[in-house]
Amino acid sequence: MHMADALISPAVGSAMWVVTAGLISYSAKKVKKEIDDKKIPLMGVMGAFIFAVQMINFSIPATGSSGHLGGAMILAILLGPYTAFLTMASILTIQALFFADGGLLALGCNIFNLGFFPCFIAYPLLYKKIVGDQITKQRIAIGASLAAVIGLQLGAFGVVVETFLSGISELPFTTFLIVMQSIHLAIGLVEGLVTTAVILFIFKERAEIIQGFPSGKTLGNLSLKPILTIMLVVALVTGGMLSWFASGDPDGLEWSVTKVTGLEELEAPEGIYGVLADLQNKVAIFPDYNFRDTNQAAGEPSSGQEAPAWAAVDSGLSTAGVVGSILTLVVAGGIGKLLQIVHRRHKKFAH
Amino acid sequence: MSHHIIELKDVEYVYPDQTAALNGISCRILHGEAVALVGANGAGKSTLLSHLAGIFVPSKGTIRVGDYPVNKQTLPHVRRSVGMVFQNADDQLFMPTVFDDVAFGPLNLGLPPEEVEKRVMEALEIVGAASLIHRPPYKLSGGQKRAVSIATVLSMLPDVLIMDEPSAGLDPLARRKLINLLKSFKHTRIIATHDLDLALDVCERTIVLAEGKILADGPTVQIFNDESLLAKSSLEKPLRMQGFPT
Amino acid sequence: MNKIEHRWLELRHFDELAAQDSLIHQLHPGVKVVTTLLFIVMVASFSKYELVGLFPMFIYPAFLIGLGNIPVAILLKRVLLTLPFVLFIGIFNPFLDQATYAYIGSFAVSGGLISFISILLRFTLSVSATLLLVATTSMDAIGLALSKLRVPRIIVIQILFMYRYIYVLIEEVMKTIRAHSLRAPYRNGVGFKVWGSLVGLLLLRTLDRAQRIYQAMMCRGFDGQVRIMRSWKIRTGDIAFLVVWTVFFVLVRLVNIPHWLGRMLLGGFS
Lengths: 351, 246, 270
Known about the structure:
The structure holds 3 protein chains of 3 kinds. Chain A is mainly α. Helix content of chain A is 70%, strand content 1%.
């Protein structure tokens, strides 16, 4: 499932962009060094292939429902992890652009969730370990299905963590986690079955394609160390950045602890804190992580001490705000219409 | 331009899976000649063309194109003088726009930008596709795709044009345009085709292939009048020569 | 029509829109990509309970729609089609966060409802900005923008190759699916038994195609470098576009314009 721009905070979005960009340039370097020329058209056409096949609905036996293919595991098995990761990045970029699947801010998250986990975790640690050097049908079947399922589970976990860290959805972490993991278990099973069926077919028809990569060829061999090092460095840097931004918020890092444990009561900022929060609200590019204590939302009446917190956030939501919004929308629509006329005039002069 | 004689001597080719595709081919094609390569499916036409373009290397025998024997070292020279138009235009047109596709070869030759642009324009004018220059290839009709495919090799100024089924999938008008275009060329042309009317129109000479061997090699008209030869190689007399009452 | 044909038509529709020639289409693609990203980051940066302050952001898509001559319907359709996931996540907010956040007149509005509507607004804004980018910029120009923005070459080339062959492969997949559904008319989707061979065969054909493309490239002197000749100069208009919109976004982010407007209109009461 794709993360969407609307559910993500700029901090999480840009942090994941940085991580993904690092992985992409590392993979690009790797691929460039080890690629043979043949792979250049192959990468493009395989990307288009997965893109097209993703649109086929596969009916799931005995359920009457249908699912579709993500494709990362097929790519990893056929092209090797680095090339597969780049290909997934391209596919997700085109989907984000043309179908608004996910979105541009969330693109980093999506490439990470749907590319990194299957290509750099599930493929080397599961598929390759299980299949090993003696390639047999059984090993392929077990390795491919397991890797596809686990890869997707990790991806779903990524979605949950990113959504939670963004703080826009009110869903409690554990509830969301349980729902997402179980939905993606079903989707992952379909993915695993389709992947296995396709890889076994290729193995039957042209065994050399499958055999070419797991053994010998450099692109298939993946050393996790440099990737994990990059990840660690990037994580530290972005973690630092994040906490720097978060420190503008009075409650700083505690908010995340509170939300995870659900134990502590949130103290509302008061006095000078309120003013500071107000200021930060206006100045910071990144939003404050204001959130409600879910315990309270569940039924307890709002306590008195909360009032200043809300006053600190100038919502602008009032009758005046509503009137102004309508007016703004009318203006926006008017500008659009006006420009359409300008465009037509312009055309007339141009021809 | 030197004398671009193409010479094949006892060329044999065996596919990796051990099927023999070419089985002792010898022939000589002179500068400026237009030669049709005909024969049933699987007779070895495409394999032979691939050899001339240096895509395949013969298992046995030698091929010379102009001054060079075809081998790994001479491939860049061979590819510069031989232009190959593939059967499926979608395989040939892989770039984002028509301009990029036609410029692909010249840019690989390391030509300066102005020269590239000039060559692209000239090549597109020749095939009558100058107006398509900024279009993406997937928006072209079959005939337009074919014309642009030809332009992609013309821009490299080849001496020899090799074509695989150039009229396949074209509507009658586009096909007629193509025939006139091919007739107007002065290049050495080797055209593999099932379209015997096209062969008759464009090529004075025809080579008949069957099971990887040359079955006949001679003037086109003479070959198409040899009914037993045509029958033996699963071909049919061109409609035009079948003597329908008109 | 099934999903694949729908998407295929949509893709073609966007491609045709991008082939138009308006003032927006003539802008430098790099400038458009940067402005779009900036817009999306700015929209995302509003606090989650922000509603009113978001509205002026609609002026940007309205501007592109008008001057770029883009039909609103195609954007709305996509917004609606991509809505479910966001709806699925966002719909819980009103139930989980019921504390009163503000009053409109005498109506109490809960924080969850506000954040839910805010999610929908952000969603509409960022989806339309993204779609407007591709509706006013050809894929080929986006490739140019990406390489100008230092995206690794191999990715740019791959995206361009991929976009080129999506058209070929979708048609191939469509033919295969059609042939399949003619023989299995009562099935929704491709059945379990034929998955492997159907997709596998398509895959083998794709691999063969890659091989032929490679040969075609070799025949034209390919040496591992894909060279694309492009020049697209940045003009003053491009810079102006970027600067004006950046200033506008920052302004809208800092000042709650509709609130201010409303107060002026209502004479300062409320």
